[in-house]
Amino acid sequence: MTDVESRRRIGAEIWIVLGLSLGKAAVYAVVNIAARLTAGTPLAQQTATLNASRTERPWLDLTYQLLGIGFALVPVALALYLLSSHGRDALARIGLDRARPARDLAWGFGLAAVIGIPGLAFYALGRALGITVEVRASALDDHWWTVPVLLLAALQNGVLEEVIAVAYLAERGCRDLGWSRVRFIVTSSLLRGSYHLYQGPGPFLGNVVMGVVFSWFYTSRRGRSRVVPLVVAHTLLDVVAFVGYALVPAEWRAALGIV
Q1: Which of 36, 92, 176, 197 is deepest in the core (most CB within 10 A)?
Q2: What gap in Å lies between CA 150 and CA 198, rounded to an integer?
Q3: How do the domains of the chain map onto residue ranges?
Q4: pLDDT, tens digit, for every residue of 205-257?
Q5: By CB neighbour count within 10 A (0-12 exposed, 13-18 middle, 19+ buried), where does 210 fall?
């Protein structure tokens, strides 16, 4: 296979992986925000619901939730399989292993702290400017499995987004296609922002900033091409958002102006 054929094959592979995962979500997000902007109702008066209940029957709802989480991770398995070609260990290649657990956890908590406060500020600013919808982080009914499912959903988001949008894209883009670090950071960050666009321009910009920080860290000497700190940070942020929302009493949320 010639170099040109190899590059074309890798390019097609990237589009396929994204088309099955975050790229598909980005396209739907663009259509969704177009629908919101032409709905005749201001964005500030609209709501985006995450982790919604699928049915009123608890055990069936639990089944749907677990199936959704499991199938959402299939593109991650595909990406790891593709990166494992020619006998290479994909987990070690992108740092999705237990080689440096203490260091990875420390960086994960640090990144979560760095991103968490600015993220809330972007959301609050977007709400104040009327360019961000009201985000309902959890609409699951109160069951014994609600918190465990929300924890799994947070982990699923962390693994899916960081492995695909950062690690996989860095491996295929930078190492195999010769992208510059700047091109990778811009591409990864815009991709991250695009699939959050359904929440409005505010979350789009906030997630682009998060993407810049995460993709820069991954390619830095501190990050050492290890994705575990990013997964830890992303999971922590979603745990706070999902579980915190579910546990805060409805009257408290109303008093704070949260749906």
Answers
A1: 197
A2: 21
A3: 3-255
A4: 999 999 999 999 999 999 999 999 999 999 999 999 888 766 666 665 554 44
A5: buried
